[in-house]
TrEMBL record:
Family: Belongs to the mitochondrial carrier (TC 2.A.29) family.
Protein name: Peroxisomal nicotinamide adenine dinucleotide carrier-like
A Pfam family that the UniProt record links to this protein: Mito_carr
Location in the cell: Membrane
Cellular-component GO terms for this entry: membrane
Residue spans of the Solcar repeats: 2-91, 109-217, 232-323
Superkingdom of the source species: Eukaryota
Recorded topology in the membrane: Multi-pass membrane protein
Parts of the chain that traverse the membrane: 109-128, 190-211, 232-256
Keywords from the named record: Membrane, Repeat, Transmembrane, Transmembrane helix, Transport
GO terms classed as biological process: nucleotide transport; transmembrane transport
Length: 341
């Protein structure tokens, strides 16, 4: 089994576990990002308070809306990313060794090369998996709101809301989200938000650049210490992943908000301030009507969710890579011993 495939499988496994643990936070964060209430006097709910509101009015299952396509998307996304990351990384390492033979560099992959490797991997990942995340965003932002009509009262319902009447409507599932996206914009609707998402490959690029740099320094520190035989611990990997993701999230969060706005259901009637024709239109309208704070809606929730998810992902991935390699080594030894002499 190739090293790229091992890393791809381990990345997919780590991504699924991280997703299962942090998904309710991700759902709440997506709703915070796509909140377009322009009335500044409205009190903003905290993360925990908003989670309780969702459970109270829509049921706990709404915190896991879109979980199935999200898990598929996470497995595919992490698998694709780590697979191509390792392929590009191997090529960068070969190039670095070739340069060393010519007297240039020390033979190791530098920061710039790590950044390019992560960016290329991210672009491939985005182009292949964007449709899955459009569907996930639709399912996360779909709301079920109970409305009771009083005598003589006319109900005003937002387009994205489902009214719970005496007859319970059918559940909003993956097929509903797919039909909705296709009905709005056809085939290319599944690539909504792809531009800011492509720009956002800088997030994992920055993340992996920071991670690889800190990991290299930590390994050198371990090599110089008396306890170098212990190697890098799972806790240290967890902390490195957290720090790397925190730095990347702070820089790229506005792009994440714009992507979520574009992928959520568009309000095509009524207030045109809430309808975005594209990436540039979204930026202009958000700056004009909401100001720069609008680009950081739900950031505290995202920091908690993304840092926790990245930490779990890195920790589980490293453990899975080591476990798979150990199993393959044992199988190889067993095969050699079992061969007749």
């Amino acid at each position: 089994m190739s090293d790229a495939l091992i890393n791809g499988l381990a990345g997919a496994g780590g991504g699924i576990i991280a997703q299962l643990i942090t998904y309710p936070l991700q759902t709440v964060n997506t709703r915070q990002q796509t909140e377009r209430d322009l009335k500044k006097e409205k009190r903003k709910l905290g993360t925990i308070e908003q989670m309780c509101q969702v459970v109270k009015h829509e049921g706990w299952e709404r915190l896991y809306g879109g979980l199935t396509p999200s898990l598929v998307g996470t497995a595919a996304s992490q698998g694709v990313y780590y697979y191509f990351y390792q392929i590009f990384r191997n090529k960068a390492e070969v190039a670095a060794l070739e340069q060393r033979k010519r007297g240039v560099g020390d033979g190791s992959v530098g920061m710039l090369s790590s950044l390019i490797v992560a960016a290329l991997s991210g672009c491939v990942n985005v182009l292949l998996t964007n449709p899955m995340w459009v569907v996930v965003t639709r399912m996360q932002t779909h709301r079920k709101v109970a409305n009771k009509k009083q005598p003589g009262q006319t109900l005003s319902i937002a387009p994205e809301e489902t009214v719970l009447s005496a007859i319970e409507p059918p559940p909003y599932g993956t097929s509903n989200a797919i039909q909705e996206v296709y009905g709005e914009a056809g085939f290319w609707g599944f690539w909504r938000g792809v531009l800011p998402t492509l720009i956002m490959v800088s997030n994992p690029s920055i993340q992996f650049m920071l991670y690889e740099t800190m990991l290299k320094k930590l390994k050198r520190r371990h090599a110089l210490s008396k306890n170098s035989s212990n190697g890098i611990t799972a806790l240290e990997i967890f902390l490195l992943g957290a720090l790397a993701k925190l730095g990347a999230t702070l820089v790229t969060y506005p792009l994440l908000v714009v992507k979520a706005r574009l992928q959520a259901r568009q309000v095509t009637t009524g207030d045109k301030r809430q309808h975005y024709k594209g990436t540039l239109d979204a930026f202009i309208k958000m700056i004009h009507y909401e100001g720069f704070p609008g680009f950081y809606k739900g950031m505290s929730t995202k920091i908690v969710q993304s840092v926790l998810a990245a930490s779990v992902l890195f920790m589980v991935k490293e453990e899975l890579v080591n476990g798979i390699r150990m199993l393959l080594t044992k199988d190889a030894i067993t095969t050699v011993k079992s061969k007749p002499r």
